[in-house]
Amino acid sequence: MDERGVAKARRGRPRQAEVARLAGVSQTTVSLVLSGNKQGIALHPDTRARVEQAARQLGYVPDPAAQRLAAARNDLLGVFSFTATFPTDVAHSYYPILVGVEKEAVARGYDLVLFTGSSSAPPQGDGAGSLDRVRLADGCLFLGRHVPAEELRRLVEQGYPAVHIGRRDELESLVWVGADYAEATAEVVRRLAGLGHRRMVLVCEQDEALASTDRERGFRAAVGAADGSVLRAAEPAVEITVEWLRAQLAAGVTAFVAEETDTCAAWRALLKAVEEAQLTAPEDLSLALLGSPPTDMAHPEPTGFSIPKAELGAAAVRTLTALLTSGAADYSPLVPCEFRPGHTAGPAPAT
User: Whole-structure pTM over 0.85, yes or no?
Assistant: First the structure.
C-alpha cells in the first residue's frame, strides 16, 4: 500500500471511500464489511480481510450520526421543562429529577438533549408549534406544574413518544410517571393525628397544579375526625404573617402543613412567621413539609415525606425507552414517597 496515500487519507476523519481505494474494492463492499454484512451477501474472505486491514490502517471508525440516520433514530432523549428557567441549579426542586434522568439514560445507552428554549419564553411554552423542536430527539420527557395542554396533546396524538414527569390526568393520551402525593400526605396527617393534633391547617400556593390538588386530596381524606382547613395563598409572603399565625393558634390549631413547590414559597413564609412570632417547633406548634426541604435553607429537617426524585427521573426514562422499543409502556405510574420523621413535629401542646 502507498504510505503517502495513507498519510493523505489520515488528514481529517477517514471515510469509507478512502478505505475502498486503499483496499482496492468498491465502497459498497466496504459498507457491507464494516456494517457486519447483515444482508448475508457472499464475500470472499480475502476481500473482507483487505477491507478490515485498510480500515485499521486508516484509523477508520463509523460515523455515529450516519449510523443513526440509517436506523431512522438518534439514540437521543429530550428533556423539556415548562419553567421560566431550565432547572440546572442544584437548589432547584427539579434538579434531582434530572440527575436520575441522566444516570438512567446513560445506563440505557442514550444521550440527552436539554431543550432550554423555554428559559426565554413564557413559562407555559404557549404558541402553535412551540414543542415541535423536541422532534430532534427520539422521544421526550416533559416536566412542570403547568403545561400547554393543546400543544402537548397534538404532539402525542401525532404518535410522538412522550412521558410527563408528574400526574397529567387532563391529557388521556399522555403517559406520565408521578409521585404518590395523596397517600404520602395522608400518612403525614395520620402521624400528626397520632400525636394528638386535632386542628390542622394545610397551606398551599394558589394554583391548579395537579401535584397541589393531590396533596389537598390526601389531606382532606386523612384528617378524619380532626378539624382541618386549607389556606390557598396567592401571595404566601403577604398572607402568611405573624398575625395570621397567632390567629390560627388562638383558634386551637396546633399543626401546620405546607406543600413543596418550585419555590417553596408557602413553607418559607410559614417558617418566617414562626420565627418572627418567637415560637419554636415542635414545642409550641408542629410543622410538616409535604416534600423535600429547599437546599438553601439551614433550618432543622422538617417532618413530612421525601420525594424520590432521582427514582422518579429514572422511572420516566424507563417508561420512555419502553415506548420507543415496544410502542407500549408496561409500568406503574405512581412512585411511593417515604415518610420523613424530621424534627419539627411532636405531641400537640396542651391548650
Answer: no
